[in-house]
């Protein structure tokens, strides 16, 4: 069974451009995190959505890639594929490393975080059309504000020191959120931005099927 985990606050809409009709799959649904809930405990609860009687393949986008790697520490998986994500804090940009060190997200009010997302999303996600921009902004608007704050805190404080041989990393060479120059051992998608799961879906689809067949 293949389980897909979307990015921060997103849902299965980001996977709609993949043809998944040939594989048995499910989409992991985000739970509402409890106040001060740890990432480990949150991921433990997410595993309740996984059928543990079958082989498990996880595919995570961006923050979903971080979640997939945390689930791998809890549950044996045949393979984990992360897309437009990172494997540890060492792959952060210098700006994210600085923000993490200073814990800037704790200072910024919620409305500012939300507004910043809306104003800069098209640039950082590298949308290619009005339709893509509309989809992205709708996803941002639908994101629960409390989940946004919790997830940003988890990203800023996450540092992974366990790298599995079963992990495959697919990354775009034009990703502005996680620049390719900081990414190690990834399959590169030329000119792929952070939203390439949408606008380079056919290339990613082929890589996914080649990896799991």
UniProtKB/TrEMBL annotation:
Classification via SUPFAM superfamilies: alpha/beta-Hydrolases (SSF53474)
Keywords: Hydrolase
Residue ranges of every copy of the AB hydrolase-1 domain listed in the record: 47-198
Highest taxon of source: Bacteria
This protein's name: Alpha/beta hydrolase
InterPro entries attached to this UniProt entry: AB_hydrolase_1, AB_hydrolase_fold
Native organism taxonomy: Bacteria, Pseudomonadati, Bacteroidota, Sphingobacteriia, Sphingobacteriales
GO MF annotation, one: hydrolase activity
């Amino acid at each position: 069974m293949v389980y897909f985990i979307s990015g921060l606050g997103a849902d299965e809409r980001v996977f709609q451009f993949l043809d998944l009709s040939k594989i048995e799959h499910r989409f992991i649904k985000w739970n509402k995190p409890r106040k001060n809930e740890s990432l480990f405990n949150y991921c433990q609860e997410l595993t309740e959505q996984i059928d543990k009687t079958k082989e498990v393949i996880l595919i995570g986008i961006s923050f979903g890639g971080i979640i997939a790697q945390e689930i791998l520490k809890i549950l044996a998986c045949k393979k984990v594929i992360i897309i437009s994500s990172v494997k540890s804090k060492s792959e952060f940009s210098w700006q994210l490393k600085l923000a993490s060190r200073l814990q800037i997200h704790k200072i910024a009010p919620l409305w500012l975080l939300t507004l910043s997302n809306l104003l800069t999303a098209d640039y950082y996600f590298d949308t290619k059309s009005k339709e893509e921009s509309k989809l992205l902004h709708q996803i941002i608007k639908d994101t629960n504000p409390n989940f946004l704050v919790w997830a940003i805190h988890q990203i800023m404080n996450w540092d992974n020191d366990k790298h599995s041989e079963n992990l495959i990393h697919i990354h775009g060479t034009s990703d502005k959120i996680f620049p390719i120059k900081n990414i190690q051992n990834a399959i590169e998608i030329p000119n792929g931005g952070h939203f390439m799961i949408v606008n380079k879906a056919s290339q990613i689809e082929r890589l996914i099927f080649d990896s799991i067949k």
